[in-house]
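Standup notes
- DV: blocked on the single-chain target, sequence here:
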Amino acid sequence: MFRDRTDAGEQLADTVERRGVDPDIVLTIPRGGLPVGRVVADRFDAPLDVVVAQKIGAPSNPELALGAVAEDGSVWRNDGLIEQVTTSDTQFENERSRTREAAREKANRYRDGSFPSLAGKRVAVVDDGLATGATMRACLQCVRAADPEQIAVGVPVGPADRLDELREDADEVVCVETPASFRAVGAYYERFGQVSDEEAMTYLE
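- DV (later): unblocked, structure below
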């Protein structure tokens, strides 16, 4: 159990250190990942930036994640779920295009200028927890396209099966707690309030 996102960041930074991961830059997924990422970046004296992705919802149920698209257009598809809800490729592409624009606009709110240069760098991608993993997987594809030397994922809590899936896209996966019966991410925090855009921006200063 974590007191709040700052405590989660401290515990995650400890775990990252013990694993021997030493990032040159920390990227975090806004908004909730920013308080966690700030602590990790400070621990390793690394710059902090964001990587943004948005879930692609089913046309009939926007809360159902058929995949996710990152700010650069990188897409992760949940093909099994797409087949189950009988979404056509055209419907998926329409949702993907709309969602990519939303991801790009969100990234522009947090960052002046272009995506950071990651070529040859050791990159840590941090969030405040992992649930479905859809957003994280799209973010990892975006990061991989920038040709880093190494990608490490860092989250305070997540289900073991979803963490294992991330190993397809990351060189290291670091997690503090992997509960046997995973509930929502917020269940593992004493305080897990929404992070506003205004608050989130302060962690990048």
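- Follow-up: The mean pLDDT is 94.
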